[in-house]
Amino acid sequence: MAASEIEQWWIDKFQENLGPIRKVAGWTTQQLADELGVARQTVSNLETGKSPMTKLQYLALRTVFSVEIARREDRDLARIIKTLVDDPIEQRIRERRAQEQDGEAVADNAPVNTDGGNVADNAATEKRKPSAATLKASKTAATGKPTLSTAMQALAVITGALASGTAAGIITYLMFPDGGPNKR
Fold first, then answer.
1. SS3 letters for the chain?
2. Which pTM value belongs to this model?
3. pLDDT tens across 106-128, in order?
C-alpha cells in the first residue's frame, strides 16, 4: 500500500462527498467556485464526477473548508468531513494493513469497500490506481510503510483537531491575530 494509493483514496472519497460538504458549509456552487477562484462549472463537474479531482484541487478544497471551519468555529462542518471522508479512509487503511500483516495477498487493484457501496461504484477509482512498480517505489526504505505528502498529513490532522474542537481557538488566533477577519 503506497502513499499515492492512500492519497487517491482520500481524493476520491472527498470528491464523492463534495456536494454534501458544500451544502453543510452553506455555500452555493458559485460561492465555492468564487472561494477557489474557478468557474462554477468546475465545481459542478467535480461534484457530479464528470471531471476527476486532482490532488491540487483536493488540497485547495480541504484548505478552503479548513479555513471556513476555523473562521466560523464550525465543528459540525469539521465532523461531517471527518465522518464522510477521513474516518472511512482511516478504516480502509487499517483493514488493508491488517490484510497485509495476515499475509493475505492484496492486489493493487483489489477493491476494499468499507463504505457500503458496491464495487462497481468504485470502478473509476480502481482505473486510476498506480502500478505495482509505482507503489513499491513510494514506500519508505526504513519501514516499508507509505508516507503521505506533508500537505495531506497536515490537512488530515487539522480536520481531526477541528472536529474535536481542541485546536479551533489556536488556529483562529494564528490566522486572525487581530481578533478576527472583520475586526480592524
1. CCHHHHHHHHHHHHHHCHHHHHHHHCCCHHHHHHHHCCCHHHHHHHHHCCCCCCHHHHHHHHHHHHHHHHHHCCHHHHHHHHHHHHHHHHHHHHHHHHHHHCCCCCCCCCCCCCCCCCHHHHHHHHHCCCCHHHHHHCECCCCCCECCCHHHHHHHHHHHHHHHCCCHHHHHHHHCCCCCCCCC
2. 0.60
3. 554 455 444 444 344 444 444 44
